[in-house]
Model the fold of this input.
Amino acid sequence: MAQSGCEVYFINPLVFDSVLTFSMKQFTKDSNLHIIEYHVPRLLYYLRFHLRLLYDLIINTYVISAINNLSAYDELWCFDFLIFNSLKKIIAGKKILFVSDKPANDNLKKIIASSDFIVAVSEYLLSLIDHDENNKIFINHGLSKYFAFLAEKRLKVIRYVPNNPIEVGYAGNLRIGKKLD
Done:
């Protein structure tokens, strides 16, 4: 998106490394690509899973207000449903949630309700989400150019013998119960 001229703010996952302070660091890579690191107290990681209401209050008070002060966003893309409990307080024209898990988690259900669009790489996951069908977007899995380059390079050195297949390992979330999506 940044290469096509859009102003992009990429907010990294929260860094739980400080003792008591909140801090934000912004790195500008190219004139229109801004990478944001938000450092928060380590205690928040515990609160995120054990005292969610307190975690949400702190995140809404410090992190969301800092995000809103960075820019006026036309679109916000959220890839981690555990950071926020809702996208309502983030000021953006469109709020897009990328879903990679079944909507069984209460927090995921809340953030889905506050999103304008839902994007997923699985039609099965989209079918489980209660949201306006016109605002659910299926995209296929994508591979980066670097990943494809490495795969092609490594395939050249693998000694494949017909009728003696190579063993391949896969790590991912495509298995859903007994169903392979």
The helical segments are 43-50, 52-70, 106-113, 123-128, 145-155. The longest helix spans residues 52-70.
